[in-house]
Design a protein that fits this description.
Order of helices and strands: EHEHEHHEHEHEEHEEEEEEEEEHEEEH
Helix content: 25-40%
Strand content: 25-35%
Structural class: alpha/beta
CATH topology of the largest domain: FAD/NAD(P)-binding domain
Number of strands: 19
Largest sheet: 8 strands, mixed
CATH class of the largest domain: Alpha Beta
CATH architecture of the largest domain: 3-Layer(bba) Sandwich
Bound molecules: flavin-adenine dinucleotide
Shape: elongated
CATH superfamily of the largest domain: FAD/NAD(P)-binding domain
């Protein structure tokens, strides 16, 4: 069975890897280079607790399940690619600056709520203006840039093919088969998966299968500490940002900007991220900016993932993961690959593309 996947981000590669392992003939079309879009730009947090503040019940359940799948998913990627991806379950501190925020955290999770002194004992870089912090020892992270490279390698080792610098421009149904058109070729396929991130709705089709795209720009910074200073040991959330220790640097993220497909870096975002981070950890003022980048999150009109078969038979989508595409990767790989294979898949009806009136 010939399967075409459009987009070599974490979603397309994870599903493709599962399908290739199941023996399918899988070709991933990638308009640029594999795993260089949102998958590269992300912070790599696997943060079901911290992100539950933005999620509904279906999404929280999906996030928790995916977080449980992560250790085995990471181990298999490393074993099959021969590359390390830096999966670590180091926990996260979610800091509250007011009593109200602390109460909200208490309502959001059953995890331990630390006093301000206990939080500072765990993370000495925290400043004085906090009232407490939620400590979740199970929040994790992965080096998302290493993950993208390793997934591409595991996929190819499992027998999959990637055609880079080849964009899908149109999908058609011809004699009951799907045909994907690129500038170079027409590819007939039994099944097609659109996993093109924020650009998933940009592929030309005779009928709409996805709602209007909602790319959400995120700018991030990486700081390097002065000599002799160590970055925090765990992820820290607070003051509107998150701080992620990664390979001797501290990542600060991220802005949320509705500016279409623009990924320009702005001084305004740099200043906002720096101010917020320094508000949380005052000594960061002496750390140097090592890198500034931006990526586009694949948003959806209701901010929930869009997963499953579309109104066109054998045409599937995996997009709309918004802020959580790294966290969701194992669960998306599991459910979407099973749907494509026609085997029983866990319930994800709440994420069906047909929930949007414009494509039902
Ligand atoms: C700043 C930032 C921080 C983030 N932090 C986190 C985090 O900590 N944890 C988390 O879980 N998530 C995080 N995310 C979200 C996460 O990065 C995304 O949800 C996830 O990477 C989406 O993966 P994807 O494979 O769908 O899209 P992408 O990684 O964007 O991949 C889509 C691919 O499709 C290709 N493509 C597009 N159009 C076509 C076409 N027509 N033909 C062929 N190929 C095409 C693109 O070139 C790209 O390679 C963050 C995102 C950003 C921007």
């Amino acid at each position: 069975m010939k399967t075409i996947i459009i987009g070599a981000g974490v979603a397309g590669l994870s599903v493709g890897w599962k399908l290739a392992q199941a023996g399918l003939d899988v070709l991933v079309l990638e308009r640029a280079q594999p795993a260089r879009a949102a998958t590269w730009a992300a912070a790599g947090m696997i943060a079901p607790t911290a992100e539950s503040a933005h999620a509904n019940a279906d999404e929280t359940q999906f996030a928790r399940w995916s977080a449980e799948l992560w250790p085995e998913f990471a181990a298999q990627i490393e074993a099959q690619s021969g590359r390390q991806i830096g999966y670590r379950r180091d926990g996260a501190l979610i800091v509250a600056a007011t009593q109200d925020a602390a109460e909200q955290l208490r309502a959001q999770s059953t995890k331990t709520l630390l006093t301000a002194d206990e939080a500072r004992a765990r993370e000495p870089l925290l400043g004085g203006n906090i009232v407490g912090a939620l400590w979740d020892s199970e929040e994790a992270q992965v080096d998302n840039r290493a993950l993208g490279i390793a997934l591409a390698s595991a996929f190819v080792r499992a027998g999959g093919k990637i055609s880079s610098n080849e964009a899908a421009v149109r999908i058609e149904v011809r004699d009951d088969r799907l045909v994907v058109q690129t500038p170079f070729a027409l590819y007939p396929a039994d099944k097609v998966l659109i996993a093109a991130g924020a650009w998933s709705g940009e592929i030309e089709m005779d009928v709409a299968v996805l709602p209007t795209a909602r790319p959400v720009k995120g700018e991030m910074l990486a700081l390097i500490p002065p000599q002799g200073t160590l970055p925090p040991k765990q992820v820290v959330w607070g003051n509107g940002v998150y701080l992620v220790p990664r390979e001797g640097r501290l990542l600060i993220g991220a802005t949320m900007e509705d500016t279409g497909f623009d990924t320009a870096l702005t001084d305004k975002a740099e200043a906002w991220l720096t101010d917020r981070a320094v508000g949380l950890m005052p000594s960061l003022t002496s750390w140097k900016i090592d890198e500034h980048w931006a990526g586009l999150r694949p948003g959806s009109p209701d901010n929930l993932p869009i997963l499953g078969e579309t109104r066109i038979k054998n045409l599937f989508v995996a997009t709309g993961q918004f802020r959580n595409g790294i966290l969701f990767a194992p669960a998306i790989a599991e459910t979407v690959s099973r749907l494509i294979l026609g085997s029983a898949a866990p319930e994800i009806r709440g994420f069906a593309p047909q929930r949007f009136a414009e494509v039902s």
